[in-house]
Amino acid sequence: MSILERISYDHTLGQLFEERVAATPGAVAYIEYSHVLGKWFKHSWESVHQQAGRAQSLLKGLGLGPGDRIGIMAHGGTYWVTLDLAAAGLGIVTVPLYHRDRGGNVAYVAERSRVRALFIGGPGQWQELEGERTRMTGVEHIFSAITIPGTEVRPFLLELSSMASSPYRVTQNDPDSTATIVFTSGTTGRPKGVQLTHANILSNAIAATAAVPIVPEDRLLSFLPLSHMFERTVGYYSPMLHGSTVAFARSVATLREDLRLQPPTVLVSVPRVYEKIYRALTSRRPLNSPIGRLLVSLSRKAGRAGPFSLWRVLGLLPRRLIGQKVLRGLGGHLRIAITGGAATNSRVADFFSGIGLKVLQGYGLTETSPVVSVNREKDIRRRSVGPPIEGVEVRLAEDQELLVRGRGVMQGYLDDPEATQAAIDSEGWFHTGDLARIKENHIYIVGRAKEIIVLSNGEKVPPEDLEGALCNDPRVSQAWVAGEGRPFLSAVVVVEEPVDEDQLLDSVGGLLHDFPGYAHIKRLHVETEPWTEHNGFLTATLKLRRRALHEKYDKVISAFYK
What we know:
The chain is of the alpha/beta class.
């Protein structure tokens, strides 16, 4: 049941929650797994409403009020949701923190944003933070979902259960007030605090679901971090608008089983997940056989062909033979897969399209709340990130940088007027830093303005396209391309099993045949240790941290050019 007749972008997130509870109090809002009891639990909107009311009493008891900040460093679930909704109603600003972030980063964000209370998931987070506690001088209280004996950490859920019932209140009714401060992932430097209002986020959720409709009968499986605006807006606030159910996956490691146990109709993900599924399917039998490889090839060709092409007809064979099995592995009920956060590998997208799964690639940034554009179900353009959503204007600057203007554009960066002025010009256009082209109102991202590699001969190369091509080799799971100011390009690739570097270099050369000669890789270094969020080489949304990689492999890369 939609509540859009009563909710618009001039409301607050607390008011959105109130309207949802009033409309469907007994409907299932969230499903999550209890590791203590060993089973899945369903939570109605009314039960979450009651829990959020108790959480508000606790927050007020700490002396917190409008404008104060709390940090949430936990895995997605009703604990996270309860805190966020409690804060939204009272005008308290949430500062989401990645649940697996390093202690030093958390301390930096907590101090920079003046967090007064910090809510963590459990012992894992405390172990990371304990050594940094002295740096977080402004943090007066630390709570955990799980009891951590012998520490200053207070058991949030235990304290909440002992409190008397208290009605949920919405005392913050100003849509232009700050709802959250989200620190950007910092792929090239220190993160900046993006200040987003209730109106920013709510307008984006409304427009995003107008572009890609979801209905009350839909179930979303949430496994991306709620600390990232993509999952938060599309996978949390948008379902609240329409009364859809969100099931929280236990972890990324259990995703395959959770897809079966809590089969989604809508999946919100990042390209890396689809790439992993594709690699797992094509690296072993039956698809890693002569007949299997032929079927995969037919699927890809069907996926990139027009609706009336002969390849579409031939694609019916792999769709019938392998498509149904693949889709059953994704739960068997999936009707839409939404992807964003990074560029989607075209071979992977073509494969899934060829077997009948609609993968809708979108584009956005934290600073735009985040959705700027998305492909529509009936108009999916290959390599496009779709047309802008309602209320968003786009245009290209002289250097082809994509500029965005609309209701979702942030207030500005926290305590950084210079950076804000550099990002948002006098006419309200936000400078994305992404190079693009626009054709028939569809946006095509062609690279990062600041990440374009300029070779010593003046030729310019967007590294992401090359990295995606390198990862089409089944042995390569990750790739990073270097060569700024150098006479040729080189790369570091991560493989799952040891390979001969020269042999791999020869074979990946064939994957780059569509690129100009100056964009070919001349030297290659093989790495066997994966780049992860934990070791600092990936962001929470699995983007490469290019500065960290450059520092790690500086000597290796420099040796290529001696």
